[in-house]
Amino acid sequence: MIDLIDNTGALFERTPRVFSALGEEDLRDVILGNLNGVFEGDATGETFNKNGKTDIRLKIESGQILVAKCKIWRGAKGFHDTVEQLLSYLTWRESWAVTINFSRNVDFRAVLEEGERVIQQHPTYVSGTLCREERRNIFSTVHLFPTAGSNRATVYHIFFDLSMPLETGSTA
User: Fold this and answer.
1) Kind of pairing, strands 138-144 and 125-129?
2) pLDDT truncated to tens, each residue of the chain (172 aa)?
3) DSSP classification of residue 164
4) What pTM, to 2 d.p., does this model score?
């Protein structure tokens, strides 16, 4: 499932002229379309789950639910707030979730580093695996549920670079 989302985001990155101008909901809808192609309509958008409407809700085998939040990167506070919002959508039955972050910043590496720093300072943070060489745009963290005692949830953080390449002059 993470691979499917990552492959969709790689399409965004390979064709930035098509996708960089799209808003958060439009990008989410492309991801939803690809998820529904595999999960046969079990992925929905703007679906109520516990305390609000999550951007993506996917019913997986055995009734398990995946909850995802999509956001345009707007810095440390925005990312912190995204994680807060996502965690508020989880019930004690959901043990994993995803933040999908679209960055238009030219310095994408700085965005990844800031995301890692912010998440390690989150009050619910327990542990995590930071960006690795083979998947530099994805890391996962474990969080305590704010209202469910010792229950924990794994959150995957996926980042996509939607910055536009610099225009080069023509020599022809």
Assistant:
1) antiparallel
2) 788 899 899 999 998 888 888 999 999 999 989 888 888 878 767 666 677 777 788 877 665 677 889 999 999 999 999 998 888 888 777 778 999 999 998 899 999 999 999 999 998 888 887 665 556 899 889 988 766 667 888 899 999 999 876 554 444 4
3) P
4) 0.87
Question: Roughly what angle, to the nearest 10 degrees, separates helices 108-120 and 76-89?
Answer: 50
What mean pLDDT, rounded, does the chain reach?
Answer: 83
What is the dihedral angle through the alpha carbons of 121, 123, 128, 132, rounded to the nearest 10 degrees? -30
Fill in the DSSP letter of residue 106: S
In angstroms, the CA 22 to CA 70 distance is: 13
Rounded Cα–Cα distance for residues 70 and 100 (Å): 5
Residue type, 93: R
**Strands, sheet with 138-144, edge to edge from the N-terminal-most edge strand:** 43-49, 52-59, 65-72, 96-103, 152-161, 138-144, 125-129
Nearest to 87 by CA among 120, 54, 129: 54
Residue 101 neighbours by CB distance under 10 Å? 24
C-alpha angle 16-134-123 in degrees, rounded to nearest 5: 85
3-class secondary-structure state, position 128: strand
Instruction: Check if the beta carbon of residue 163 is closer than 8 Å to that of residue 104.
Output: yes
